[in-house]
């Protein structure tokens, strides 16, 4: 199972998720273990008297470590406080020691009795307390009193605990109890307050009557996608992954996914669920936005990209890494990191959106998937545009295109409604924007975490804080614009799809094909109450004109399916259609008048020889911007002395001082020279 | 020839109608050759020839001065002769008696539009007369076709035992134009989406679709001319109103008990020539099938399985032969035209197309029907209080008028006045035709009964309005027009 072949790092290899070489190397001498502090996104490697930590967000392999000094002693677990001012180290089953970084002072917190074992602890941004100890007897909630340099017990929740899991992302602690450890209590400690979940049981199949399996902590995963909190539980006997969704007042089982490995790991990248089938070394992707249990794609292995070439024999480390995919030393960290404890390598898992979109022929579904991606919004957006463009050039059946167009329009409308769409915001040049990292994550779910089933959008919104970080990390995207959403506004759809497709499609039948798509787009936009860019109407006019469907064009304009605008009016007047069809030109003239574009309308009337009508119109609407000479020339050209006289008279009366201008004298003379001027 | 019933002879003294070909029968003794159609058919040949001879003489004479447009009308003391050159050297002439006592006050253009309509409908179903004559120099078949066709057509004008041709009471109507349903943008988009679906049902056959709601046009992909023809056929033979009234037009109750004009002659005709004469205008022959498609046996029945043959017609501009396939859902009538040449397997292809339509478009059809029905204001939807009007968009062959029920409330004086005004406008227009310019025109008169009768024409659009209960002043009348123009015509007639 050599994956050395994939060392080229190209995306040609079959995989939908990849890690990028080089990893963040978290190695220091004398390390006594690696710990992940998910509250601060720090990877911590303590030695006997030092704490070396690496920031993992934003993820850069080059990140420098920070070192703090602590006293010697065993380290069972270690976490920085959320303001990074304190370090808490669990020294034993009943003692946690604290350092105040600023002063170097220390203090300890011990459990009262020997039997009351501390299982672990975590810092919280919950309103009532700062740190929570999880003990076999329940939860202890403490707040830190800086003046006294000690903890003050705020509250205790008495409950038997066998083991627990907690993720800072969800602010949710799940406490397992019972013989099989399948009975659960849960608390969410968010800034909005503490929510107690109803007790619930997880499903466990029995292999036989007397053999009752015991659920272990590594078989339960808390997952946050689209701002919803799920719990995934591996049932090793049934080979199923059960999912539960947490609501404020209920825990509801959501159905099960099949698993193909006794060991399962879970990552979440950009709200996509990655189920690592560790034994089989493959990943199955799920996008559980619409409660669909269908995988996004077939199971495929993880890929390492960017391994230096020619290192297969020479570079030991690279060889190791590729051989060590899914080794026993791999630790999956919430939400998308993998740490190889033996080597100290920290990898970040990425999605290969291109590969995912290329692997499915169901373009509308792929578009839906891409539209939901936030992390690589720019890439997702570009892929969407390219997909739509290519299926149009391939001339896929119209219903497919219609569905694809609808997906994009609905998605854009949705983003408008939720306010998450804003025009791309300029960002000062992308050299390592000093974003406040710690401020980012807490904001993410602090709004209460548990969503009622219809409040997800808020979370999507908040997630966008994180996007800036991602883009500044991807140095190759050195644009000055940051795309925060994959949704596509109509004008871009025009520029990058419709206009560009029009260039490539020139045949007669192509025009009507493209027109049908435009119409569907207009329909879809109308249903969603989105304003359509005039260029799209101009294109529609042009396509109808090219097929000489003038009568229909008239219907479209009169029914206002093609909304009036100056651009459209000019296309009607000067575009393809107007050369062959006077009616089309008239539509343009009428449109100018309806739009009250008085100046253009008057000029056009004069051009068409209707200078008297133009004068009347100019007087009524007080159009003074058209030069008198235009009217005079037209009247002179018509060879009707009465008309010329009328025009002269008009200007003489309505423009003060016209009688003294050179124009006046010129045309008075011209009038006199006209043959039949006074004969009648 | 010479087949007619006594009943019609008595009823039709006031009307003579003939079609003749100047290229035929130019030698002495062969004069009868040039007659292609004559009504009444039982008029002795010398009498027929005298009508035609007079007409021919006038045409020849006037051609000296105006080779392009020869004689248009002869106004004699007791009769008006209306001329129409349907095809080069093929003339249609209608002779109507004038009478002040009866309702026989005609507008020439209205009569000519009847001739035009007959001709364009004939072409739509049978092709041009010249082509028919070229195919069969004897002319027997052409005569049978013309006879049955025109008699079926004239049937629509038969009221009791009399022909009631469009007279001054129809001044606020424009034959040969299409009446459109006004729809909102959203409904219009849905309609066009349906058009797209219909299009894809027809595949790559480059067919056309026409959609009607009640008797109003909703959408068409045909050229304006073909649309007009198909529209007048659909509204007189296919729409739900026609089908529900027993397959005949609005006057059917008046005609009950009357023998159909052409039925006997058609039978005899087909017996004579050994040809089957297709009679597309025959009444009561269309009905709605269980699957929603309209069926008729006018075009015959397939031997063996009793499936009616799909109707065919010709497009005017492209001269393509098309299958006609009509589907009806409640008030919505959908007509599909599919090129015969693209349907290699003929009837089988049509039934596949029908299947396609039922499968892929019926949901949209239901949706569109509901939407249109919801937005429709009923038969008086386009009534504007206080106004009796006719609005004609000559460029697009569209007209809209006050509902007939409202027009009948006008007094005879008003109607005669508007009839007169329209004649004047017609005259002005035919004068302008020469230099092909669209002059603005404005006529505003005060009729004997103090009604204001107003005509405005600008840039290819015409507006006729009768205001009976209007104020004394001209200013009032002209403001009323302005208001109307701004509200209902996008300000097209607002002159200053």
3D architecture notes:
The complex is a heterodimer of chains A (680) and B (496). In chain A, helix 11 packs antiparallel against helix 12, helix 12 runs parallel beside helix 14 (566-574) and helix 16 (582-594) runs antiparallel to helix 17 (598-607). Chain A has 680 residues and is of the alpha+beta class. Chain A folds into 3 domains: 4-355, 7 Propeller (Methylamine Dehydrogenase, Chain H), CATH 2.130.10.10; 360-488, no CATH class; 620-680, no CATH class. In chain A, the strands form 8 sheets. In chain A, strands 1, 2, 26, 27, 28 and 29 form a 6-stranded mixed β-sheet that branches. Chain A has a 4-stranded antiparallel β-sheet with strand order 3-4-5-6, with no helix packed on it. Chain A has a 4-stranded antiparallel β-sheet with strand order 7-8-9-10, with no helix packed on it. Chain A starts with 16 loop residues before the first strand and ends in a 7-residue tail after the last helix. Chain A is 33% helix and 25% strand. The model of chain A is unreliable at 1-12, 311-316 and 424-480 (pLDDT under 50). Chain A contains 21 helices and 31 strands. Chain B has 496 residues and is an alpha+beta fold. Chain B folds into 3 domains: 6-168, Beta-Lactamase (2-Layer Sandwich); 185-247 and 284-375, Beta-Lactamase (2-Layer Sandwich), CATH 3.30.450; 388-488, no CATH class. Chain B contains 15 helices and 19 strands. In chain B, strands 2-1-5-4-3 form a 5-stranded antiparallel β-sheet, with helices on both faces. In chain B, a hairpin with a 6-residue loop joins strand 12 (312-314) and strand 13 (321-329). The chains are: A alpha+beta (680), B alpha+beta (496).
């Amino acid at each position: 199972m050599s994956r050395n072949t994939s060392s080229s790092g190209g995306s040609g290899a079959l995989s939908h998720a990849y890690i990028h070489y080089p990893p963040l190397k978290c190695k220091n001498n004398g390390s006594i273990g690696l710990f992940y502090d998910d509250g601060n996104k720090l990877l911590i490697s303590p030695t006997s008297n030092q704490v070396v930590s690496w920031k993992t967000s934003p993820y850069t392999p080059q990140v420098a470590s920070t070192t703090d000094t602590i006293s010697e002693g065993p380290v069972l677990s270690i976490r920085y406080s959320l303001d990074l001012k304190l370090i808490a180290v669990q020294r034993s089953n009943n003692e946690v020691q604290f350092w105040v970084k600023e002063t170097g002072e220390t203090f300890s917190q011990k459990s009262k009795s020997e039997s009351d074992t501390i299982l672990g602890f975590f810092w919280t941004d919950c309103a009532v307390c700062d740190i929570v100890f999880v003990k076999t007897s329940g939860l202890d909630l403490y707040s830190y009193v800086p003046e006294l340099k000690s903890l003050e017990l705020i509250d205790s929740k008495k409950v038997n605990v066998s083991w627990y899991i907690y993720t800072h992302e969800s602010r949710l602690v799940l406490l397992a109890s019972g013989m099989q450890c399948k009975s659960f209590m849960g608390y969410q400690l968010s800034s909005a307050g503490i929510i107690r979940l109803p007790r619930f049981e997880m499903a466990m199949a029995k292999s036989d009557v007397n053999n009752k399996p015991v659920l272990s902590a590594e078989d339960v995963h808390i997952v946050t996608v689209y701002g919803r909190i799920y719990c995934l539980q591996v049932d090793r006997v049934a080979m199923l992954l059960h999912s539960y969704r947490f609501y404020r007042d209920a825990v509801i089982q959501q159905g099960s996914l099949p698993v193909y490995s006794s060991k399962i790991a879970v990552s979440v990248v950009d709200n996509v669920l990655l189920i690592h089938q560790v034994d089989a070394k493959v990943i199955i992707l799920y996008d559980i936005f619409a409660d669909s249990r269908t995988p996004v794609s077939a199971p495929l292995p993880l890929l390492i990209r960017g391994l230096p070439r020619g290192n297969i024999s020479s570079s030991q480390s690279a060889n190791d890494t590729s051989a060590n995919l899914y080794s026993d030393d791999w630790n999956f960290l919430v939400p998308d990191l993998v740490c190889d404890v033996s080597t100290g390598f920290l990898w970040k898992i990425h999605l290969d959106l291109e590969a995912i979109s290329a692997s499915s022929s169901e373009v509308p579904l792929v578009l839906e998937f891409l539209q939901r991606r936030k992390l690589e919004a720019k890439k997702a957006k570009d892929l969407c545009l390219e997909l739509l463009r290519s299926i149009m050039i391939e001339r896929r059946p119209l219903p497919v295109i219609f569905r694809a167009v609808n997906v994009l329009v609905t998605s854009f409308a949705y983003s408008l409604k939720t306010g998450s769409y804003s025009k791309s915001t300029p960002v000062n040049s992308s050299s390592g924007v000093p974003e406040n990292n710690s401020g980012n994550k807490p904001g993410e779910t602090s709004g209460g975490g548990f969503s009622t089933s219809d409040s997800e959008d808020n979370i999507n919104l908040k997630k966008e804080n994180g996007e800036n970080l991602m883009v500044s990390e991807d140095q190759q995207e050195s644009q000055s614009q940051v795309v925060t959403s994959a949704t596509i506004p109509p004008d871009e759809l025009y520029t990058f799809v419709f206009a560009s497709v029009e260039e490539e499609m020139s045949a007669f039948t192509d025009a009507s094909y493209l027109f049908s798509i435009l119409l569907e787009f207009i329909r879809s936009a109308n249903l969603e109450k989105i304003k359509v860019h005039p260029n799209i109407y101009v294109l529609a006019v042009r396509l109808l004109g090219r097929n000489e469907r003038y009568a229909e064009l008239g219907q479209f304009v009169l029914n206002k399916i093609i909304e009036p605008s100056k651009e459209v009016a000019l296309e009607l007047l000067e575009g393809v259609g107007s050369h062959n069809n006077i009616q089309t030109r008239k539509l343009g003239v009428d449109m100018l008048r309806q739009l009250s574009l008085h100046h253009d309308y008057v000029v056009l009337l004069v051009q068409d020889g209707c200078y008297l009508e133009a004068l009347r119109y100019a007087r009524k609407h007080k159009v003074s911007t058209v030069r008198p000479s235009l009217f005079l020339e037209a009247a002179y050209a018509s060879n009707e002395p009465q008309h010329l006289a009328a025009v002269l008279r008009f200007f003489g009366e309505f423009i003060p001082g016209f009688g003294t201008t050179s124009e006046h004298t010129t045309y008075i003379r011209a009038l006199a020279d006209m043959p039949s001027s006074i004969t009648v | 020839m010479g087949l007619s019933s006594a009943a019609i002879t008595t009823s039709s003294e006031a009307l003579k109608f003939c079609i003749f070909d100047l290229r035929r029968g130019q030698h002495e003794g062969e004069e009868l050759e040039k007659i292609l159609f004559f009504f009444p058919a039982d008029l002795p040949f010398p009498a027929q020839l005298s009508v035609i001879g007079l007409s021919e003489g006038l045409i020849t004479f006037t051609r000296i001065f105006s080779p392009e447009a020869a004689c248009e009308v002869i106004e004699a003391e007791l009769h008006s002769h209306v001329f129409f050159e349907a095809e080069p050297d093929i003339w249609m002439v209608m002779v109507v008696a004038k009478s002040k006592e009866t309702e026989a006050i005609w507008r020439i253009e209205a009569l000519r539009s009847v001739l035009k309509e007959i001709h364009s409908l004939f072409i739509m179903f049978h092709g041009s007369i010249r082509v028919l004559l070229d195919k069969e120099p004897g002319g027997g078949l052409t005569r049978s076709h013309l006879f049955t066709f025109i008699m079926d057509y004239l049937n629509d004008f038969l009221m009791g035992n009399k022909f009631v041709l469009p007279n001054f009471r129809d001044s606020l109507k424009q034959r040969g134009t299409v009446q459109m349903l006004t729809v909102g943008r959203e409904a219009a988009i849905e309609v066009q989406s349906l058009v797209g679906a219909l299009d894809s049902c027809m595949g790559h056959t480059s067919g056309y679709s026409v959609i009607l709601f009640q008797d109003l046009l909703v959408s068409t992909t045909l050229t304006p001319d073909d649309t007009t023809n198909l529209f007048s056929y659909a509204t007189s033979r296919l729409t739900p109103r026609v089908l529900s009234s027993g397959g005949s037009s609005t006057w059917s109750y008046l005609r009950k008990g009357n023998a159909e004009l052409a039925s006997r002659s058609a039978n005899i005709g087909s017996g004579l020539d050994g040809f089957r004469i297709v009679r597309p205008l025959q009444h009561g022959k269309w009905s709605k099938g269980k699957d929603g498609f309209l069926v008729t046996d006018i075009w015959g029945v397939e031997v063996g399985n009793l499936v009616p043959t799909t109707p065919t017609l010709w497009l005017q501009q492209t001269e393509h032969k098309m299958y006609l396939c009509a589907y009806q859902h409640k008030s919505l009538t959908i007509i599909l035209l599919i090129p015969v040449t693209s349907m290699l397997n003929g009837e089988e292809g049509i039934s596949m197309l029908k299947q396609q339509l039922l499968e892929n478009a019926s949901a949209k059809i239901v949706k569109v029907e509901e939407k249109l029905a919801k937005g429709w204001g009923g038969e008086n939807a386009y009534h504007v209080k206080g106004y009796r009007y006719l609005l004609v968009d000559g460029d697009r062959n569209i007209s809209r008028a006050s509902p007939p029920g409202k027009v009948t409330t006008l007094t005879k004086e008003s109607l005669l006045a508007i009839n007169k005004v329209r004649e004047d406008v017609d005259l002005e227009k035919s004068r302008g035709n020469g230099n092909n310019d669209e002059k603005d025109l404005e006529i505003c008169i005060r009729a004997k009964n103090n009604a204001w009768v107003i005509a405005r024409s600008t840039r290819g659009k015409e507006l006729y309005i009768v205001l009976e209960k209007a104020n004394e002043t001209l200013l009032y009348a002209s403001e009323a027009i302005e208001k109307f123009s701004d509200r209902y015509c996008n300000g097209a007639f607002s002159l200053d």
